[in-house]
Amino acid sequence: MAIDRMSVCYVTDDGTVPAVSDVSFRLSTSERLAIVGESGSGKSTLALALAGLLPRHVAEISCESARIGGRPVDLRADKSVIPRRREGVSMIFQDAMTSLDPVASISHQFRTVLKAGSGLGRAEARRAALNWTEKVGIHEPERVLRLRPYELSGGMRQRVMIALALCSAPKALIADEPTSALDASVSRKVMDLVLGLTQELGTALIMITHDVDLAREYTDRTLVLYRGEVQDLCATAELMSPERSSYTQALMRCVPRLGDHALDVLPTLTTSSLPVLETVP
Amino acid sequence: MAETHVSAVLLPRARAARTHFPWGGAAAAFLPLIVIVLVAVLAPLIAPHDPEKTVADTRLAPSGEFWFGTDSVGMDVFSRVVFGARIAVRFGITVAVCATAIGILVGTFIGLSERSRGIQSALGGALNRVSDYIVAIPDIILAIVVVGIMGASDLSLLIAIVLTLVQAPIKLTRMEVLRVRNEAYLEAAELGGESRARAAFVHVIPNSIGPAMRNMPLIFGNCVIILASLGFIGVGVNAPTPEWGYMISSGLSDLMLGEWWETVFPAVFVFLSVLGIAYSSRAIPRVWPRIAAAFSTPSKKRKNLA
Amino acid sequence: MSWYQRNKWWMVRVMRLPVDVFVFATLAFFLIRLLPGDPVSVALATINQPKTPELEHNLRIQMGLDGSVWDQLLRFWGNLLHGSLGTSLDTHLPVTREVLDRLPATIEIIMLGLGGAFVVTMVLGFLYIRFANEGLRRFIRLTTGFATSVPVFVVAIFGILVFYVILGWLPAPLGRVASGQSLPLVTGFPLLDEVLTGNFADLGQTLLRYVLPVGAMILTYTPNLLTQFVGGLDRELAQTATRFQVAAGASRQWIYFSVMRRSVSSVVVIFGLFFGSLIGGAVTIESLFGFGGLGQLGIRAVSTADFPTLQGFMIIIVVFCLVMFVAVDLVNMWLDPRRRPGVSSEES
Amino acid sequence: MSQEAFTLRLAGVRKDFGHRRRRITAVQPIELEVRSDSRLGVIGESGSGKSTLARMIVGLEKPTAGTIEFNGRPVVDWLSSRTGRLEYRRRVQYVAQDTSSSFDPRQTLFEAVATPLRFLCGVTDPHEVRSRLRRIADELALDPAMFGRRPHQLSGGQRQRFSLARALVVEPRLLICDEVVSALDVSVQGTVLNLIKSYVSRHGMGLVFVAHGLPAVSFISSELIVMKRGAVVERGNVAEVLAAPSHPYTRELLSAYSGPDPVSLEAAR
Description:
The complex is a heterotetramer of chains A (281), B (306), C (348) and D (269). Chain A has 281 residues and is α/β, with parallel strands linked by helices. In chain A, 33% of the residues lie in helices and 24% in strands. Chain B has one domain (29-305): MetI-like (MetI-like fold, Orthogonal Bundle), CATH 1.10.3720.10. At the B-C interface, helix 1, helix 5, helix 6, helix 7 and helix 12 of B face helix 1, helix 2, helix 7, helix 9 and helix 11 of C.
């Protein structure tokens, strides 16, 4: 996947509002990229635009060139009211409950994806669905497939969502804050699962998060966004190095760490060195 | 920010508030209501003839003298239509104010007594059930029954229409009160030492009357509709009074013979006024926050500490 | 899960209906007696006879208004259990029969009008999400701008003016069939009866005469239903669930279906509410087109101050509304199992 | 400013939710003591009962069993009379996680912050109210001009600082913070945490800090209790717990934060 100079503007009554400007990055098979930023930095917008989920009446997307899986793609948004899927890109969201169709059974949701994606028949689709539910570590897949999302526990829903997103074998998986609603220990388990499956399938992973620790643990490279602009794109391990941009350094210092109880004052992002953060548009 | 943008844009009705004062928008929103009320107030000045007297031959076609023609007893249709607005507005405003006021009080009471204990809760629950059942009675049927039992009079009409239309503000206010009850600022008020009664009046009611207030023009519109429907089936305001529904039905037999003006003009007025009121009731809530914002700006400066 | 557990949700809801009916009837009993004004004196005013205390007393007994309120209530309950709501003062027929004879014809026209509006709403809603054509979408939005209950009889009058008075395409609004003919009576539903008796000439006539009233109802009620539907569609389109379906690669047809299914329940609720208000609307339509159904009965009861008929009339109509509400609830529970009682989604 | 000492003691406090059949114990019987110099951190995953514990202390929930005593007098007793309630509220204040609904949208922040001052401290003189507000704004580094705004005109971080101001303006002896930073961005979290820490130590007051993030809790508190499913599984001095956790759950929590930390804080500066 290669994206060159991509910009996204939201269309409002009062003209367009730029949300992401001039983002470029490359991603190879099985690579893992984190997009880190605070709320309002445009990271979710970037994710939606990449997955093709912004219809044309919502946002304008411009891009110099974009390739996914070696083939050039037109990143510009689709015209239809319900956006069309970007071939080869899947996405998972923060809240599994609202992401799944609340009234359709799990097996039905698998079937619609599997039939559309790989043209499987009913029986084959069912076998594939069983296979996938087992793969994400759900016991009694037969029973779970019959249930509807509201009858599952939160963890199960999360797993079902991951299975659904990956069962069409996408080239890249975008995870939008996949774990920020979860507790630290649970979120590690979910991330381990996602990581294992993507590695197995050779799927590239783009993880959107505000949790720098999570990014450091699970990704190879990190893209730091601030107000829609790329501040840094580097190997995740080098985030702390002094060559990074001033914003990245400031952001890294802000992350509270174990052992800080020895300090009197936490480092904070000072507004003097950067554009004001606390403004409500 | 990204999330708010997406939802703001995907939901077409949520729009970014503009900073300048929206005179144009406000005027456009209120215009239909103002025109209707003006016609009602100025009816004696606008109408060229007495609406309840025979002034010419029967069934004259519209002309320069009688703009909308005359009806089957020779009364001027134009004057009657204009005075008809008076009846509609008088009923509409009375009903809207009464129903909204009663609805807010009852709705707040029901909302606050839910999940409380003792007699208040029982009473609130009973009121809520009663209101549930009254909603099930079709409005015109309820009006027919009330008028049939009390005899035809303005009071019985008023009671009938208020009884049906008060249910919406009750439900709206109750829903809001139930929402507001869970807001963290009520806890904050308690922690700040405010008493329950004070919190109810200072925080709960002001924050929950919005929907009921916005519903007011809609009640006005519905009242016009019910009144016209009742007049049309002959259960409404008594005979010579110029009431739109009654005028429509009394001209029906003439309509079949091609003398359309007696029926069509009042029908057009009902149509226009109901649409106008509906337009206003939809447009006013849209412009209201901006108007409120424009007016609250000075107070903001006054309260500043710096 | 046992059969009982799986089907409990709708059985519980259906079982509640008789209780609702009973509670409502009692409520109506008190409501009517709490109104200021005395039905006996209203009735006396309509009778051209010298007003003697005897006459008044007889009238009071006929109306069931003699004795204390509690006596009246006990008698009312007793009658209710026997399915009796009193006798009409005017025709001396049981009120239940008076109302039930007329109800099917009214229900038929409501179902045609409202059902038509529902179908049109579904079609427009599908076009709304299927095609990105801005003109079409703006047209649909504009339609919802008219969402207000302009009285249905006003719409019908414009219809009569255009199609009967000016163009002369449709027959005069004077009953269901040409004058002089009478309708066969089997089930009470006019169209159905004409089919059952094989009376196809009349069927054609009736259908032709239904065009205007049903058309007026569709025109009046579609914008209201459509407002709900388009609002629901807009909301569902913005939902993460829809985005995830796209992102995960679900088929297009399924996404359309899923979005519509999730948006339709508010339309069904409004449908149920309108069913009630449409009985009112049907009263005006029936009186406009000379159909003679419930409307005729209600108007006659008011003009003769026929108290038992009024009371029974209201109760039976509301019972039908309550049945409709149950149906609406059941449809919604079927569409969305989360609405079933006893289902609570686990907090994650 | 009074520096009066206090003791808050929880003895066998338990909290159940729901009715007979679906009864859930949110907080298992708990023993706890908070003194005027305690800075107690409470950590646990969501649903571990830590918020319920905090809400019971301020009296927003009633314990099912056990007693909470403040200065030897049960909290229920404090709250039963009007004067007692006001006095208790003046000493114990609470800041919640939710920043979006914690202020009445119709009131300016001035009114919101002045209300507790009026009711709890009996300060009615407008001049005095203003000076007290200016003082608290000063201490929490708030722009006094923002008092004229309404809550929706502020960002989440600013609102949270104003909730702090509302709680601290009455100069309480004990501050209960319930997940005050978990809804905020990292960059803003530091600001709020610093404010709380410096204010509490400057005024020598007690603090109960409830959170699910270990780093924040370890920064701000001196003692720590770890809760899981309503029960306290570990307690002790922060440094000791972090150095040698005894319960497996605590170890799991710690391991979640012990990712590669290649550069020390000194180097990052």
